[in-house]
Design goal:
The protein is built from five helices and six strands. The protein has about 170 residues and is an alpha/beta fold. It has a six-stranded mixed β-sheet with strand order 2-1-3-4-6-5, sandwiched between helices. The protein is globular and about 35 Å long. The N and C termini lie far apart (about 50 Å). The N terminus is likely disordered.
């Protein structure tokens, strides 16, 4: 669903990161459209007060709010995977529709998680995806260096893929 024209900020670039408190008109419009369960993806990756959260795609407002209520260090929401994401310890994607979209999110997440302070976690919700698509995604995530990959059934017909991205310590 598009955001109503009267709620957009003329100073924002399309696809730019959205700060929860600096764009209240946009947040209000997104909140009124959001249908994501409150914090479900944050629960499966055990997001905590030490984590910075990056939410990619879908209606990000509920997950941003859930991150703040949970006490996470920071929360950023973007419509599309950015080429140069901010550092994060947790990346969640609430609405993944295709393998191509999932791969783009995984590559973006890898960049963000590499900059994070400790091992990163990724969670993607695949809506209405056949299990074979999820298995192909898991194989692709393994090739990108993700570990501890799990496939779970989510609410409705959704599948949730989770994994960790280990950060190698520079201490030898």
């Amino acid at each position: 669903m598009p955001i109503p024209a009267d709620s957009t900020d003329p100073h924002s670039l399309p696809g730019a990161a959205m700060s929860l408190l600096t764009r209240p008109a946009r947040i209000h419009a997104i909140l009124s459209q959001s249908s994501e369960p409150d914090g479900g993806l944050l629960d499966v990756v055990d997001a905590s007060t030490e984590d910075r959260v990056l939410v990619v795609g879908g209606s990000t407002a509920e997950l941003l709010c859930a991150s703040i209520r949970r006490g996470c260090r920071a929360a950023t929401g973007v419509c599309r995977p950015p080429g140069h994401p901010e550092a994060a310890e947790v990346v969640v994607a609430p609405r993944v529709a295709s393998l191509e979209q999932a791969e783009a999110i995984a590559c973006c997440a890898r960049k963000a998680l590499r900059q994070g302070g400790h091992d990163g976690r990724l969670a993607m919700r695949l809506r209405g995806a056949p299990p074979r698509l999820a298995r192909r995604l898991i194989a692709r995530l393994q090739a990108l260096g993700y570990a501890g990959l799990r496939l779970r059934r989510g609410a409705g017909a959704a599948l949730v893929v989770t994994g960790r991205f280990p950060i190698l310590s520079s201490i030898a």
